[in-house]
């Protein structure tokens, strides 16, 4: 289960709570982030906030902190669709272009390149669509209540 801290920003109905999650770059969590060029670039850009509703079993107040969970299988399936499917399309499109070019007596290498690029692009597009659908169906759940958000108010 992948976990993320979220802040409650509203509750429209008793069964759903609106939360805000700060999307973080993986570069900020590495021990070498101070010595890495990619980590420096990641720090230069501000964090993105994402808002969505999650099912709630009780009422929460604005500012409450929650720990949300999302099954890792959703992320792994999406990554496989976006990365492995285009690779499969590239290889099978190239092989198909090579075979067709050889049988027709055409330039097999040019057809293999064109077939590979076409197959890779088509499979990337299909994988991206399927991954979006899969992620839209995935619903984070509230794992625990973390308390109130501490603010810097002076007395």
List the helices and strands and how they pair.
Elements: E1 2-13, E2 16-23, H1 37-44, E3 48-55, E4 64-70, H2 72-104, H3 108-137, E5 141-148
Antiparallel strand pairs: 1-2, 1-4, 2-3, 4-5
Pfam family, one: RseC_MucC
Protein name: SoxR reducing system RseC family protein
Keywords: Membrane, Transmembrane, Transmembrane helix
Task: Give an overview of the whole structure.
InterPro entries: RseC, SigmaE_reg_RseC_MucC. This is SoxR reducing system RseC family protein. Pfam families: RseC_MucC (PF04246). α2 packs antiparallel against α3. This protein has 3 helices and 5 strands. The protein has 155 residues and is of the alpha+beta class. The longest helix is centred in the middle third of the chain and has 33 residues, at 72-104. Helices cover 46% and strands 28% of the residues. The mean pLDDT is 80.
List keywords for this structure.
155 residues, alpha+beta, OB fold (Dihydrolipoamide Acetyltransferase, E2P), 2 domains, five-stranded antiparallel sheet, 3 helices, 5 strands, elongated
* Gross geometry: elongated
**What is the CATH T-level topology of the largest domain?**
OB fold (Dihydrolipoamide Acetyltransferase, E2P)
Oligomer: single chain
- When the domains are counted, the total is 2
Please provide the ordered H/E string of secondary-structure elements. EEHEEHHE
Per DSSP, the total helix count is: 3
Binned, the helix content reads: 40-55%
Head-to-tail CA distance between termini: 40 Å
Can you tell me the CATH architecture of the largest domain?
Beta Barrel
Gyration radius from CA atoms, angstroms: 23 Å
Poorly predicted runs are none
Strand content: 25-35%
Mean pLDDT: 80
Number of strands: 5
CATH class of the largest domain: Mainly Beta
| Main beta sheet strand tally, sense and closure | 5 strands, antiparallel
Look at the helices and sheets and give the structural class. Answer: alpha+beta
**How are the strands of the largest sheet arranged?**
3-2-1-4-5
Pfam families: RseC_MucC
Organism: Shewanella corallii
Protein name: SoxR reducing system RseC family protein
Keywords: Membrane, Transmembrane, Transmembrane helix
